[in-house]
Every structure is written in C-alpha cells, then in structure tokens.
Design goal:
Blueprint (H helix, E strand, L loop, with lengths): L13 E6 L3 H13 L3 E7 L10 E4 L2 E4 L5 E2 L4 H8 L6 E3 L7 E5 L2 E4 L4 E2 L2 E2 L2 H6 L5 H8 L15 H9 L1 H16 L8 H4 L2 H9 L2 H14 L21 E4 L3 H14 L3 E5 L3 E6 L7 E5 L5 E3 L1 E4 L3 H7 L6 H8 L3 E12 L11 E3 L10 E4 H4 L8 E9 L11 H16 L7 E12 L5 H12 L5 E3 L9 H15 L1
Parallel strand pairs: 1-2, 1-16, 2-12, 7-18, 16-22
Antiparallel strand pairs: 3-4, 5-11, 6-11, 7-8, 9-10, 13-14, 14-15, 17-20, 17-21, 18-19, 19-20
Helix pairs in contact: 1-10, 1-16, 2-16, 5-6, 8-9, 11-12, 12-15
Bound molecules: flavin-adenine dinucleotide.
The site of flavin-adenine dinucleotide (FAD) has 36 residues, from helix 1, strand 2, helix 11, strand 17 and strand 21.
Length: 490
C-alpha cells in the first residue's frame, strides 16, 4: 500500500509529512529543510492555497487582511523566521500617529487609559482621571498595589484574577474587552497561566502587578537606548500596539516568501487540494506512518507533523491509534467568529476614527466585539480620504450571532457603526469572513491538558502535533510550535 522511499536505495532519506499548510506547517517544513539535508518533506494542504487563516486581498485601492493583520514582536519567532527567509525589509511597524485604542462606555467611544497594557496600569495618573471607570472603580484598581498576594499556585481564570486584584469594574469595563478581543474568549473560563502567565508571576515576585510594572519601568529608564529596529517600544494605550508588526504588502506576502524558500529547496514537495483523512501505523514497518488522502493512494512516512486544529487532528487520528489521545485533543474547545471587512469614506463618519480601533465590553450589550481601524494601524491600506474597518462578531460570548446569514451580520454591524461612530452612509463595500471553530480556547486547566497530550504522544513515536492549540494562539507561537515539532522529528 505504500510508496515509501525508506527501503529503497535512498534509505538514508527521512520522509516527513507535514499536514496543514498554514503558518505552522510552513514553519515546520522550513525548519526541517534548513536543519537537515537528509530529510524529504511532503506538505499536504487540503485547500488550494497556502497560509490557512492568513489571507490578504487587494481590490479598488484597499489592502485587506481577511484574517490576522499583524504579529507581536516581543515573542521572537515571527521576526526570526522573517530574517531566515530574507523578508525583514518588508516588515512595517504600526503608524505611531494613531497609536491608541478606544473602549465603549455607555455607548460612547472613550480612550483606554494611557499605558494600560491588557491589565498592567503603568500610568497611575491616567487611571485616576479616566472616565471609563467611576471614582470608586479607579481607586479600587489602584489599591491593587496593597492587596495581598495569593498563597496558592493553582490555575485561575482571568476574571477571578482581575476581580480579586483590580475589582469588578476594571474587569468588566477594560480587561474583558481588551483580552477578550485577543482570545475571543469567556474571561470566566480563560486560564490565566496558559494565556498571560506574566501576571500571576508579577503577583508572586512583587506582591502586586502595579508594583512589578513600576519596578520594570525603573529598569527600563536606567537602560541605555537600544538600536532601532522595526519594533517601536513607545508607550500607547490598550494592547501594546507599538510592539506589533505587519508586512507592507500584507501578511500573505510573508506566506509567499516562505513558499518561495520551500519551493527552491529540492527537499520539499507541496501538494495543494489534498485532504488527509486518516493516519495509520503501517503493518510492514511498525516505525512508519501511513497517511491516507481522500481519493488517493496512501503514502508512507517516517514522521508526521500535524498542524491542524485539535478537532481536525482528532478526526484524522483514528481511535485505533490512541483513543486517549483522540479524546484529549477533543477536550480543547474552540470559538467561532466573523470579521466584517468594510470600506468607507472618512467623511461619512461623525467620529474622526483617530485610533487603532475600539473594543466593546460585553456589559455594553452590543452585537460587536471590536472594530479595528485597519488603515489607521498600517499605511496604504485604503485610498486617500477612505478608511478600511474590520469589525469582529461572535466569539465565545456571543456564538448565537453567527447563526445569522452574511446579510444580517453586515446589517447589524452597520447599525452598530451608525450608533457608535455616527456613520451616515452605507459602506462602499462590505464582506463577511467566517472563522468556524478557529480560535482555541485556553480554559482553566489548559496547561495540564497539554501536558497530558504531550505524555500520550510518547506512545506514538514519529507523530508530532503543532499549532495554535497548545502553547500560544498567535502567529509567533504557531511558528515556534512548528519549529519545535520539526526539531523533535529530526
Ligand atoms: C479571526 C482571527 C484573527 C486572528 N488575528 C491574529 C493576529 O492579528 N495576530 C496573530 O498573531 N494571530 C492572530 N490569529 C491567530 C493566528 O491566525 C493563528 O495562530 C495562526 O494563523 C494559526 O496557524 P496554523 O497554521 O496553526 O493554522 P491554520 O491557519 O488554521 O492552518 C491549518 C491548515 O490546515 C489545513 N487543513 C485542515 N484540515 C486538513 C486536512 N485534513 N488535510 C490537509 N490540510 C488540512 C487548512 O486548510 C489550513 O490551511 C487570529 C486568528 C483568527 C481566527
């Protein structure tokens, strides 16, 4: 049943299947061939294009990111990959002119307090004066500096941590929308240790997040200025926008650059439009894996790296291989969301849209989670006098909204844009992009679940898992996990 090269004259060649051609699979393939001349890689992707969730489109003077629009640079993997493939000169920082974010409060967009990084308030004066919180809420937030540290080391939800240290208002009005925007998650379930481990670490090391933040600021002030790079560390409000980068021509250009590097290598074969349906142990050789493709002959490999969402990986991994592993993978839940990408005349808004975007607290009871002002974040994304918006809908807190058809979703997004920003005319265009079960939810206990998956994998030598489901949801995490799987396979 196989066409393995391993028992032919090329017996030294180590054959690896990489399943999934998103950024994780691409990174895994790139690392395999950059580390070994003896490896032969077959990258199997079910759709007709590479990049997975990453997708950029250009039309009518707009450059539209239909999936992710940037990556964080304080996790080094994405920058390092760009260096390795000669792509660094294409990277761009966010536009410093609009580096702030807004949060909805009683229907009005207000600035997120300056220096408020997810939940670390680095500017106490901005907290004391912000209209986002009541006076009692501001004082409660700042009293975090005197709240005793927790004595247990157990995992805890984001909501529990923030309520305990900063109070209910800070949770509902700031942290839930800021963090929820990243993870599209329910803060009552989101594991703090798996998503933002530095915050419980700050609590343990300094007794308080505020005190730890102040201590870090003192260190930063005393440090000599670093050489300039694409990373601009200047402070802003909301998420650390100064730490985000993208590609001048959109993130799909990064995918194309990796593809070009892979295609140059004689060690990689890329197959598009091939869906992997099952994995099996080959009877002839206990150490080899059979990869079953829909409507095709199975292929044999010495190792397999699966870079799919865990629900898809569990389907492929038949119960015959490891029912425990299959069940453990199914335990990781996913949320769905949609992005409405729309183009507008700036003059059609009462609001100047002079920020990177708006986050919407769940307590505001709106039908949108966030709006990213794309062409404010990065230059040349919309024609002069126009603006490109990306409005996020659904997530773990409002999955029912995604049961609507595209027209209904565009309709209620327009209603929200009218109500919040004073939009006076219909968008020039609007497109709904759905992400069904695409965002892994790192619920409390996630680290234990991942540890269990890792330990179960020891019983299936030659099989490796990578992607955003395990040790971080962003692009740099996905790249790092693809690289790690490649290193382990080698
Ligand atoms: C809406 C949204 C916005 C995001 N925004 C950001 C952001 O701004 N910044 C950031 O850092 N991160 C962001 N992320 C997260 C980031 O996009 C992901 O971490 C990353 O793209 C995951 O890449 P991946 O290769 O692991 O998965 P995917 O991109 O999902 O790739 C998996 C690939 O496997 C293929 N496949 C599936 N089943 C099979 C099969 N049976 N056989 C063969 N192939 C198969 C799929 O077609 C797909 O191409 C966002 C995520 C979402 C959903």
């Amino acid at each position: 049943m196989t066409e393995s090269a391993s028992n032919t004259t090329e017996s030294k060649t180590f054959r690896v299947a990489v399943i999934g051609g998103g950024i994780t699979g691409l990174a895994a393939a790139q690392r395999l061939v950059s580390r070994s001349n003896n490896v032969q890689v077959v990258l199997l992707e079910s759709s007709r294009r590479l990049g997975g969730i990453i997708r950029t489109e250009a039309a009518d003077g707009y450059l539209m990111e239909l999936g992710p629009d940037s990556f964080i640079t304080n996790k080094p993997a994405a920058l390092q990959l760009c260096e390795e493939i000669g792509f660094t000169d294409q990277l761009i920082p966010t536009d410093a002119g609009f580096r702030r974010s807004l949060v909805l409060r009683n229907g009005k967009p207000l600035p997120v307090p300056d220096g408020f990084m997810l939940m670390a308030p680095s500017n106490p004066w901005a907290i004391l004066t912000t209209p986002v919180l009541s006076i009692a809420g501001r004082l409660r937030l700042l009293s975090e500096a005197w709240i005793a540290r927790r004595t247990t080391d157990e995992d805890e939800s984001l909501a529990s941590f923030v309520r305990r240290r900063f109070g209910q208002q800070a949770l509902e009005r700031l942290v839930q929308p800021l963090v929820g925007g990243i993870y599209t998650a329910d803060p009552e379930k989101l594991s703090l240790k798996a998503t933002l481990p530095r915050f419980p670490e700050m609590e343990q090391s300094h007794g308080s997040v505020i005190r730890a933040t102040m201590a870090q600021q003192r260190i930063d002030r005393n440090r000599s200025p670093q050489s300039h790079s694409v990373v601009n560390e200047s402070s802003g409000s909301g998420a650390r926008y100064g730490l985000f980068a993208s590609a001048a021509g959109g993130l799909s250009d990064m995918v194309t650059a990796i593809e070009r590097t892979l295609r140059k290598s004689r060690q990689v074969e890329i197959q598009l439009g091939v869906e992997v349906t099952a994995l099996e142990r080959l009877p002839a050789s206990a150490s080899q894996w059979g990869v079953q493709l829909r409507d095709q002959r199975p292929m044999a490999f010495d190792a397999v790296i699966m870079t799919l969402p865990t629900h898809a990986a569990a389907r492929i991994l038949s119960a015959a291989i490891s029912p425990e592993l299959q069940a453990a993978l199914q335990e990781i839940e996913y949320a769905s969301s949609a992005i409405v990408v729309s183009g507008h005349r700036l003059s059609d808004f009462d609001h100047p849209l002079d920020a990177f975007g708006l986050v919407v607290p769940a307590i505001e009871k709106r039908k949108i989670m966030a709006v990213s002002f794309s062409s404010r974040k990065f230059p040349d994304r919309a024609p002069a006098g126009q603006i490109l918006l990306r409005t996020f809908v659904g997530g773990a807190l409002q999955p029912e909204l995604l049961h609507n058809d595209d027209e209904m979703i565009s309709g209620f997004v327009n209603d929200e844009l009218r109500s919040i920003f004073g939009m006076k005319a219909e968008p020039m265009f609007s497109e709904v992009i759905r992400y069904n079960n695409a965002m892994p939810q790192y619920h409390v206990g996630h680290l234990d679940r991942v540890a269990r998956i890792e330990s179960l994998l020891k019983n299936t030598p030659g099989l490796y898992l990578a992607g955003s489901a395990y040790t971080g949801v962003g692009i740099p995490d996905s790249i790092a996990s693809g690289w790690l799987a490649a290193e382990h396979a080698l």
